[in-house]
Amino acid sequence: MTIVQGRVRDQRTATPARRERVLPPLRIGPFEVDTPVVLAPMAGITNPGFRRLCREQGAGYYVCEMITARGLVEKNPLTFRMIAFDADERPRSMQLYGVDPESMRRAARMVVERDLADHIDMNFGCPVPKVTRRGGGAALPFKRKLFERIVRETVEGAGDRPVTVKMRIGIDDDHHTYLDAARIAVDAGAVAVALHARTASQRYSGAADWSAIARLREAVPSHVPVLGNGDIFSAQDALDMVARTGCDGVVVGRGCLGRPWLFGDLEAAFAGRELPAPPDLGQVASTLRRHAVLLCEHMGDHKGIRDVRKHIAWYLKGFPVGPELRRSLGMVESIDHLDELLSELDPHEPFPAEADGPRGRQGSPGRVVLPEHWLDDPDDLAVPFGADVEHSGG
Ligand SMILES: Cc1cc2nc3c(=O)[nH]c(=O)nc-3n(C[C@H](O)[C@H](O)[C@H](O)COP(=O)(O)O)c2cc1C
């Protein structure tokens, strides 16, 4: 079965001048999407409302917020509430986190039996200390046998639903794991690998090392897509990453915060079309309003309007909007209130150059906290105790 997901909607006027497609469609198991772009899973961000907003701009794979295997297996109601997809969302991509092969297998089995998602992405990139301290996230691929078992069990549990793996370069510069981990994952049945080209100790600081993505592309069999991730803040960045690394698709995280139309730009760029004109402040305001409405629809009015508050600064980045209005927007109480505040903006204000470039968390590098003796034996199969926590990803 091949499911082709076409463009969802291109709201803005793209010039029809056609050039060659930059890359062939991106195939993840039975799914094929013309635009080789993946929305990176982001805890607290990539909920159904935000995914719909992005899907309205351009085609791609849109991955949900991270779901813990333990939450699934223990039938935690909160976990089940997070697994929500729109009726027209295909494929339904779920990111699963876990360190215990048995619970990952059971969680993947549940995904199939309850038809919760069409595709499972596994998170081995989280650098958060409370996760790595217990051997989870980006710490785990160092334990290559355990890593192999987790991927294999998940693939077996998932049956014919494709499983992909997302990881970092390694723990730090002395412990790169990605090349081994990718080979292991592919041998264990993963159908694609994504690399956030930073080590866990870099967190989000500095620049992603795209040369690692190029090395990964060379190391992995050519029929297995390699997805590059890290520091794509514009469509040109995506084209540059593809040109420099040979990757088969890109994963975009922080670049779309307050800028979901980036997916329209990416669709145009990969199709070889001219990019749509950047939005003026009036268009930005209507996108922000749409975001708020979608969050309210999915989360209820109270939670939805509060959730949109954290996006306001990203939407307004670089625009000349006074501190008073920004503050009021950051405390917006309802859609009517939002309308009132947005009406104070000058809709003709052009998109500012300052809004280009990096956005979202950056932070500083730091030592990766690991369990005691973690680095002594990479072949140790012991499941790290207590690492199967509920947590926000990264
Ligand atoms: C707020 C936030 C939450 C994130 N949550 C997750 C997550 O749950 N799972 C995951 O694999 N990566 C997570 N990430 C990492 C992103 O998926 C992505 O790998 C990273 O941001 C680098 O890509 P970028 O440079 O395009 O942002 C998160 C990143 C951010 C900024």
List strands and helices in order, with pairings.
Blueprint: E1 3-5, E2 26-28, E3 31-33, E4 37-39, H1 48-55, E5 61-68, H2 69-73, H3 77-82, E6 93-97, H4 101-113, E7 119-124, H5 129-132, H6 144-158, E8 163-172, E9 175-176, H7 178-187, E10 192-199, H8 210-219, E11 226-229, H9 235-245, E12 249-252, H10 262-270, H11 281-299, H12 301-316, H13 323-329, H14 335-342
Parallel strand pairs: 1-3, 4-5, 4-12, 5-6, 6-7, 7-8, 8-10, 10-11, 11-12
Antiparallel strand pairs: 2-3, 8-9
Helix pairs in contact: 1-11, 4-6, 6-7, 9-10, 11-12, 11-14
The protein binds flavin mononucleotide.
Flavin mononucleotide (FMN) binds next to loops.
Question: Would you kindly provide a written description of the structure presented here, covering whatever features stand out?
Answer:
Catalyzes the synthesis of 5,6-dihydrouridine (D), a modified base found in the D-loop of most tRNAs, via the reduction of the C5-C6 double bond in target uridines. This is tRNA-dihydrouridine synthase. It catalyses: a 5,6-dihydrouridine in tRNA + NADP(+) = a uridine in tRNA + NADPH + H(+); a 5,6-dihydrouridine in tRNA + NAD(+) = a uridine in tRNA + NADH + H(+). There is one protein chain. With 394 residues, the protein is of the alpha/beta class. The chain folds into 2 domains: 245 residues, Aldolase class I (TIM Barrel, Alpha-Beta Barrel); 70 residues, Non-ribosomal Peptide Synthetase Peptidyl Carrier Protein, Chain A (Orthogonal Bundle). It has 14 helices and 12 strands. The strands form 2 sheets. An 8-stranded parallel barrel has the order 4-5-6-7-8-10-11-12, surrounded by 7 helices. A 3-stranded mixed sheet has the order 1-3-2, with no helix packed on it. α9 packs across α10. The longest helix has 19 residues. The N terminus is likely disordered. The protein binds flavin mononucleotide (FMN). Flavin mononucleotide (FMN) binds next to loops. Flavin mononucleotide binds next to loops.
